[in-house]
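Thread amino acids onto this structure.
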């Protein structure tokens, strides 16, 4: 684990209402108001972005904000979608791009994920490229050809962008998301090193200092310590744990103690 780590908090389609959102932010304020070295990025449902932004100062929760997905288009007749300009204007600095659940639900192609990445970069939103989705994959299965395709299809035209702005990639094996069974540290390390190798081939070895590789998939306060010795890992993308302030605080504490 390198410093400073990035910890993403993906609330997914939670919580149910604004009262619960306020309670979550208040709970995080109680536990995370102290100074810390980690960069925390919160991905609430887009309809709560304004509320979370307003509550941050009140409760002392100073985290960056992001959206969970973006449209492939910047404007137009795309019912139910959120454009990158909308996200930026709502205060989002980051966006997840190609999350496994989104890939599956929308039957996204890698080219469509590339378009989402492109829209983000065009409108001053930092994309976090999520990779690792494998349809029909079984526990522990890693298809490195799929990983290469997901990385190269999206990033092949972004060598200059990576060199200038860096990159954040989140590895999320399909079989580990929401199952309570994370990938083992050896697998995560091997995948992280492989991702770094791909980026070095694309943009140069000297860019790797600005490339952050995160892991997401059933990380919690009880197992996070097992991943902290992975030197090629730069942080985590939390799902279920992100809805529990005490869990988030424990994970942040363990990460920063390392």
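Threaded sequence (258 positions):
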């Amino acid at each position: 684990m390198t410093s400073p780590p990035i910890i993403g908090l993906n609330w997914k389609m939670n919580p149910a209402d604004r009262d619960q959102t306020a309670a979550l932010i208040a709970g995080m304020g109680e536990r995370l108001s102290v100074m810390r070295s980690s960069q925390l990025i919160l991905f609430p449902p887009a309809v709560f972005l304004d509320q979370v932004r307003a509550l941050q100062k009140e409760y002392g929760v100073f985290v960056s904000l992001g959206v969970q997905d973006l449209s492939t288009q910047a404007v137009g007749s795309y019912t139910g979608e959120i454009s990158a300009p909308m996200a930026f204007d709502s205060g989002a600095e980051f966006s997840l791009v190609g999350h496994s659940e989104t890939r599956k639900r929308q039957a996204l192609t890698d080219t469509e994920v590339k378009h989402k990445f492109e829209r983000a970069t065009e409108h001053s939103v930092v994309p976090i490229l999520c990779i690792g989705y494998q349809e029909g994959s079984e526990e522990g299965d890693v298809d490195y050809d799929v990983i290469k395709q997901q990385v190269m299809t999206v990033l092949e035209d972004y060598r200059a962008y990576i060199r200038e702005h860096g990159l954040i990639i989140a590895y999320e094996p399909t079989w580990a998301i929401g199952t309570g069974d994370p990938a083992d540290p050896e697998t995560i390390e091997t995948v992280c090193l492989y991702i770094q190798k791909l980026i070095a081939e694309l943009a140069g070895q000297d860019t790797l200092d600005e490339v952050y590789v995160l892991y997401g998939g059933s990380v919690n306060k009880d197992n996070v310590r097992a991943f902290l010795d992975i030197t090629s890992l730069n942080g985590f993308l939390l799902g279920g744990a992100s809805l529990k302030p005490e869990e988030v605080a424990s994970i942040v504490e363990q990460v920063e103690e390392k």
